[in-house]
Design brief:
This is Putative lipo protein. InterPro entries: Creatinase/aminopeptidase-like, Pept_M24. Keywords: Signal. This protein is of the alpha+beta class and 454 residues long. It has two domains: 281 residues, Alpha-Beta Complex (Creatine Amidinohydrolase), CATH 3.90.230.10; 120 residues, no CATH class. A five-stranded mixed sheet has the order 3-2-1-4-5, sandwiched between helices. Strands 11, 12, 13, 14 and 15 form a five-stranded antiparallel sheet that branches. α4 links the parallel β4 and β5. α8 crosses α9. It is elongated, with a radius of gyration of 25 Å. The protein starts with 36 loop residues before the first helix and ends in a 15-residue tail after the last strand. Bound molecules: 2-acetamido-2-deoxy-beta-D-glucopyranose (3 copies). One 2-acetamido-2-deoxy-beta-D-glucopyranose binds next to loops.
């Protein structure tokens, strides 16, 4: 990973001097190893059962009688992935699921058929007649992935098969899919959140090691080297991820461009650089999303030598995190939270952007959006949904700050995940960054070799 070609000067071996602490959390993050796949199955299937048991409550909340999901192998509805058992890897044949808000006396509240014969339709029609559902939600939303997962051909076929009577009872209620996927089950003794904290602690540990002299040698290591170090570390821990890690040098790279040039050259990291990482891990059916900042100390420098302008920039970003977190009131729309937060930020005399998203089953999961990178007035459709409780969110944003030392305004990007807690509050899943990760460089080691940048 650390490139050793092109040496102009004899470079001393950099000794690890410990991973920089940059946490509001109380202890150094550790790597959390995962249980066996078999044990993971027991954990995730219990979460699945809890989620399915809650579907009737969600249907009642939105005043609808039933929810019909239909899909084929390799053309699954988006919600399939949140409702499947751990040992299901795809839908099979035609997989139909029907959930009822209040089943007729003596009947079940959920049905599932896996069939490739027309019998599936007579089974469905028998149940619909017996249950006499008046309103049946189908996932046909044009804008929301979690309520728009029914394939176009599937809808045509269902309408043909169920006929006029039942077709006329089909309704669109996008909040059903959104709430089913977005709501985090509690699990046995709250074990889902415990595991989520473990995932987040691991992500922090990985960032802490990546942003240290163990991985970065100024003058040699490129941002791309660090990205691939993270990928390999994720694999070594038996985790996966949901996006390629992004490491950049603030002020030199264009972080945040949704259409980056594919041939963007990756920069070599130098002393004095302000580094940024956007990184997430995936394990046991959950995803994390974190952005942190690091400073590359010049040889002989210590934490007190971090430019004051950088410290103030980080503090502003922390302040914006507080503002957004305080404004995240259950029931408010993402757009209202966005407007209120940006207003407060401007009143406090600084600029920035807010672009928070739900997280959980997906990295970008089901629920309202609080801004998007390029949409700071409002987010159409998704920004108009209400904020739900029992969810996890990524508080993602940046604050602008003029750094006198560089004579330049920089964006201080931060992202930390929060989880909802009783009493309409949000807590950091692991912590939030308040101090820079530091890449230490020694002026000289015991042998007297100098660490010198090319
Ligand atoms: C990853 O999985 C392999 C194979 O099951 C196992 O031997 C190894 O200990 C695991 N590593 C970690 C860090 O959990
Ligand atoms: C929050 O969740 C509870 C279930 O724990 C539910 O009864 C309540 O209606 C929810 N509150 C809001 C405002 O959605
Ligand atoms: C700071 O930057 C501005 C323009 O970006 C330039 O006009 C000015 O001369 C710079 N100041 C110094 C001290 O370099």
């Amino acid at each position: 990973m650390i490139q050793s070609t092109g040496l102009k000067t004899l470079v001393a071996v950099l000794l690890s001097v410990g991973v920089a602490q940059s946490s509001a959390a109380t202890r150094e993050p550790q790597y959390v190893t995962l249980p066996s796949l078999r044990e993971q199955l027991a954990i995730t299937d219990a979460w699945r059962s809890e989620r399915i048991a809650n579907i009737p409550n969600i249907l009642k909340k939105y005043d609808v009688d039933a929810w019909l999901i239909s899909q084929h192998e390799h053309a699954e509805d988006t919600v399939f992935w949140s409702l499947k058992r751990a040992t299901q890897f795809a839908a099979r044949r035609r997989t139909l699921q029907l959930f009822l808000a209040s089943p007729a006396p003596g009947l079940q509240s959920s049905y599932s058929w896996i069939d490739n014969t027309p019998e599936v339709w007579s089974n469905l029609l028998d149940v619909l007649e017996a249950q006499d559902a008046r309103s049946i939600v189908v996932n046909v939303d044009a804008e929301i992935a979690f309520s728009g997962g029914m394939h176009a051909g599937e809808l045509v076929e269902i309408q043909r098969r169920v006929g006029e009577k039942w077709q006329s009872r089909f309704v669109a209620e996008p909040m059903v899919g959104v709430e089913v996927v977005g709501t985090m089950p509690r699990g046995k003794e709250g074990d889902r959140l415990k595991w989520y904290k473990g995932l987040m602690e691991t992500a922090w540990a990985m960032i802490g090691e990546a942003f240290s002299e163990r991985v970065i040698t100024p003058g040699f290591t490129t941002t791309e080297d660090v990205e691939w170090w993270l990928r390999d570390k994720v694999q070594a821990m038996n985790y996966t991820t949901w996006f390629q890690p992004d490491v950049s040098i603030i002020g030199k790279d264009d972080f945040g461009d949704p259409n980056p040039s594919p041939i963007q050259p990756k920069n070599v990291i130098h002393y004095g650089d302000l580094l940024h990482v956007d990184f997430g891990v995936t394990a046991i059916g959950m995803n994390t999303d974190t952005q942190h900042l690091a400073y590359v100390l010049y040889p002989g420098e210590t934490e007190k030598d971090i430019p004051q302008g950088f410290r103030v920039g980080l503090k502003k970003a922390n302040r914006l995190q507080d503002i957004v977190r305080e404004n995240m009131k259950i029931g408010m729309t993402g757009n209202a939270i966005l407007t209120k937060s940006l207003e407060q930020m401007k009143n406090e005399g600084f600029d920035g952007r807010v672009y928070c998203h739900p997280i959980g089953d997906w990295g970008h999961s089901a629920g309202t959006l609080i801004g998007m990178f390029n949409l700071q007035d409002e987010v159409p459709v998704l920004g108009d949904l209400p904020l739900l409780n029992h969810t996890y969110y990524s508080v993602e944003l940046y604050a602008e700050h003029f750094v006198p030392e560089l004579n330049k305004t920089l964006n201080f990007y931060l992202e930390e995940d929060v989880h909802w807690v009783d009493g309409d509050q949000w807590d950091w899943v692991w912590g939030r960054q308040e101090n820079f990760h530091l890449i230490h460089s020694k002026a000289a080691n015991q042998e007297g070799f100098f660490v010198q940048e090319l």
